[in-house]
Amino acid sequence: MGKDLYIVMKPILLTVEGPIGIGKTSLSREISKAFGLRLLEEIVYENPFLGKFYENIAEWSFQLEMFFLCNRYKQLQDIRSQYLQQGVSVVSDYNIFKNTIFAKRTLDGENLPKYLKIYDILTEGLPQANLVVYLTASIDTVMKRIKMRDRDVERNMDVGYMKNLIADYDEFMKAFEQRHPDTPVIKFHCDDLDFVHRPEDLAYVLGQIGPQIRALQES
């Protein structure tokens, strides 16, 4: 009499990354629904320094980045103990490595080394992404989408800052793929993709991501 075969699904952490306004949270929610992953959304607009930061980047950058770092550290600790260690896969609308991208753009020479030292201490031993979905687009597309969602704290967004941030992301992701060849990265150019408003675009994106999720869970 044959024995039934059971596949034990490995819990994975999938992170969605890209510049501000690109659609990370919207896509993360769709991935969560489509593939049954627990959703983790970052704390953004609860940050008391965010509005001040967009008005004066130099003055408020350290306070802003430290708030984000501490909150993301606590979230990932909870995700590890409450979900990953219990066999539950997670999709997050951020990867904690984004902290270094923003910090290197906004912190001055005195604060950056201190911040990076704290980052290294806090992130040691935290769960790392098994799969990264990277969303990118031109500055025109990003600014258009930021304008469309019309959030108060983003109305004074500096175009030059956003242009540099997009370039920083591209540079970081190239280096990330070289340093972490065993971590799959799926990249989508979003100038011609609108998975929020066009179901066919969403179906295409999910169709690219799904096989990677299944392969990792079954490995």
From TrEMBL:
One of its GO terms (molecular function) is ATP binding. Belongs to the DCK/DGK family. Its EC number is 2.7.1.113. Pfam families: dNK. The keyword Glycoprotein does not apply. The keyword Transferase applies. Residues 14-206 form the Deoxynucleoside kinase domain. This is Deoxyguanosine kinase.
